[in-house]
């Protein structure tokens, strides 16, 4: 200990100089005044592309399957592979940004995402497409957690930052909602490969604007001698991939077959090792102590369940409209307009409604609406008029649009300020994991049932019950700790 005091005596002068340089001073030195909003739009292009690619591919699945000769299981992996890597690497990518510089990691992620999008569009075989999708998910994971940190650098004043974060949230919600519509239009007017090529010029423009050092300042790096927990990261990827394998392949090769039982055992073992690493590690990527906060734990469950149904049914209905009702990709894409519109409207109303009834009540209303939307799809069959699907899509979109913003607000208010970034990252990761599991399970159910419609009905029942259960859970806790 004495040696540490002697060594540290000349250091305070240097550290004070660094820490007294406020974000506002950095901004004034390195960014011309008035350009912050333009730069916000530029860095949100990466966020828009990563969110869009979560759902845009769904309307191209039928064409991809025909061109690259793969079945529903292969199509599930094409969608889930991206989300799986995205979810698995999200928290570690945030830690890399803290240590190596957030702008640097954002640019590496943007370049990786842009390159892999081009590779997806050029893929001559299914396996090359899947490999490029996995790389694309890695690029998205490097971008997303570092975008919010860059927003904090660009907008040091709280009132401007609040508006910037709201803009970021709307961009993500709109990208998810318009994905099926954009996908249907591009597949019908051009080719399924165009949904990936679309990202290339956008990514190049964003890179060219962001690269010059005077445009976006680099954040101060926080070098942590403890390093990243690579063992926990590997366990997270292997565990989530094993569970996804069980859900996707179980219906096809048998739930009690040795590959499925092996993957299930691998998921359990890696999950236990992951929890041990996080509990004992000095630099956990998933701080387990946050789950001792009831609001935080319930919020993670709600976020996962919301995306479980939302992503799962975008996948199912994209196939239903084209394979069961024999609609074109264009008509199938336009069929999602009620969901797109309701998400946008709900996000626009969130601020007003939150001030009127509070975030907790608004979230419960959103969950109740979303569950009703899933249950309404029990009436859907091959001969159903579009009005049946229209109501379900509208209610599901309105539900998620009214749920996620207040949920985020509640979660960030439940943790200490210094943990807000981690809490936001964990919520995003849980939502992505929920989406992965929804696509995996629902895709498996339509294969094990005697026909597609029966599988869709069972999936709607599961999604509706899960959504209403978390609604009841949130409601029961509204008057107490939640």
UniProtKB/TrEMBL annotation:
Subcellular location: Cell membrane
Any GO MF annotation of the entry: transmembrane transporter activity
Topology class, membrane: Multi-pass membrane protein
Cross-referenced InterPro entries: EmrB-like (IPR004638), MFS (IPR011701), MFS_dom (IPR020846), MFS_trans_sf (IPR036259)
CDD domains: MFS_MMR_MDR_like
Pfam families tied to this protein: MFS_1
Transmembrane segments annotated in the record for this chain: 37-61, 81-98, 105-128, 134-155, 167-186, 192-209, 230-248, 254-276, 288-321, 327-349, 361-380, 386-412, 433-450, 456-477
Keyword S-adenosyl-L-methionine applies: no
Record flagged with keyword Iron-sulfur: no
Annotated signal peptide: none
PROSITE patterns, A to Z: MFS (PS50850)
Gene Ontology CC, one term: plasma membrane
Origin superkingdom: Bacteria
Sequence similarity: Belongs to the major facilitator superfamily. EmrB family.
Full protein name: MFS transporter
């Amino acid at each position: 200990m004495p040696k540490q005091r002697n060594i540290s005596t000349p250091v305070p002068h240097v550290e004070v100089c660094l820490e007294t340089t406020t974000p506002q001073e950095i901004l004034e030195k390195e960014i011309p005044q008035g350009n912050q909003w333009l730069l916000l739009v530029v860095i949100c292009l990466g966020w828009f592309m990563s969110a869009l690619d979560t759902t845009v591919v769904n309307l191209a699945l039928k064409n991809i399957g025909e061109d690259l000769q793969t079945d529903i299981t292969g199509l599930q992996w094409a969608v889930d592979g991206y989300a799986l890597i995205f979810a698995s690497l999200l928290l570690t990518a945030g830690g890399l940004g803290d240590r190596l510089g957030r702008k640097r990691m954002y640019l590496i992620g943007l370049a990786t995402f842009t390159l892999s999008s081009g590779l997806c569009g050029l893929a001559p075989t299914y396996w090359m497409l899947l490999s490029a999708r996995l790389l694309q998910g890695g690029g998205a994971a490097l971008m997303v957690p570092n975008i919010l940190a860059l927003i904090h650098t660009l907008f040091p004043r709280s009132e401007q930052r609040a508006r910037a974060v709201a803009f970021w949230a709307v961009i993500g919600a709109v990208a998810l909602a318009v994905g099926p519509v954009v996908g249907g239009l591009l597949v019908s007017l051009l080719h399924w490969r165009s949904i990936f090529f679309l990202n290339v010029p956008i990514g190049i423009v964003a890179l060219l604007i962001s690269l010059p050092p005077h445009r976006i300042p680099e954040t101060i790096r926080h070098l942590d001698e403890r390093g990243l927990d690579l063992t926990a990261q590997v366990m997270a990827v292997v565990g989530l991939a094993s569970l996804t394998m069980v859900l996707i392949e179980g219906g096809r090769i048998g739930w009690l077959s040795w590959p499925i039982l092996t993957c299930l055992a691998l998921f359990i073992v890696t999950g236990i090792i992951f929890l041990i690493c996080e509990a004992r590690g000095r630099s956990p990527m998933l701080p387990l102590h946050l789950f001792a906060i009831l609001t935080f734990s319930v919020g993670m469950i709600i976020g996962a369940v919301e995306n479980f149904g939302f992503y799962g049914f975008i996948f199912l209905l994209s196939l239903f409209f084209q394979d069961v009702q024999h609609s074109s990709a264009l008509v199938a894409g336009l069929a999602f307009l009620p969901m797109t519109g309701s998400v946008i409207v709900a996000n626009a109303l969130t601020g007003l409604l939150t001030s009127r009834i509070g975030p907790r009540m608004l979230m419960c209303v959103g969950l109740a609406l979303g569950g009703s939307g899933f249950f309404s799809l029990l009436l859907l069959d091959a001969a159903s008029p579009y009005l049946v699907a229209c109501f379900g899509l509208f209610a599901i979109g309105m539900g998620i649009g009214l749920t996620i913003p207040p949920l985020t607000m509640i979660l960030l208010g439940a943790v200490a300020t210094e943990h807000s970034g981690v809490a936001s990252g964990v919520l995003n990761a849980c939502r992505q994991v929920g989406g992965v599991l929804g696509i995996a399970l629902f895709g498996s159910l339509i294969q094990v049932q005697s026909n597609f419609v029966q599988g869709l009905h069972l999936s709607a029942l599961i999604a509706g019950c899960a959504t209403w259960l978390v609604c009841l859970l949130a409601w029961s806790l509204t008057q107490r700790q939640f």
